[in-house]
Structures are given as C-alpha cells and as structure tokens.
Amino acid sequence: MKNIKHLAVSATLATLALGLTGCSGMSQQDKNTAIGAGAGAVVGGVLTGGSAVGTVGGAAVGGVIGNQTGKTN
User: Fold this and answer.
1) pLDDT at site 72
2) What is the pTM of this model?
C-alpha cells in the first residue's frame, strides 16, 4: 500500500512540474483565466456533488471571471 501512495505522489508531482513549464510563456491574463477555470471547476464539482455538468459549468464561469480580473477599460 505504501508503494502505491509513493507512486501516486511521485506521478502527481511530475505532472505538476511538467504542467507548470507550459505556463512560462503565458500572459498574466492567460494565467488568471487558467487559475479561474481550475478554481471554478473545483467549486462547481463540490457544489453539485461531483456532477460533470456542474464541474464544466464552474470551469466556464471561473474562466470568464479569471479572464476579466485585472482588465482595464
């Protein structure tokens, strides 16, 4: 059991490290959009009990909010 947990943690950290390298060329607005979509997906999933529609809807709303954050008119 300990080996499976160790493998899962290692795989998660490797995925996170590779994913963050893809963000290096993003603008601040793009980063805000990605963060908002991720946070919205988590909140939407929690509020709807893990419903796929709730998760996708939360990601869409969070992405829009993140995209508009810090925008100047």
Assistant:
1) 66
2) 0.66
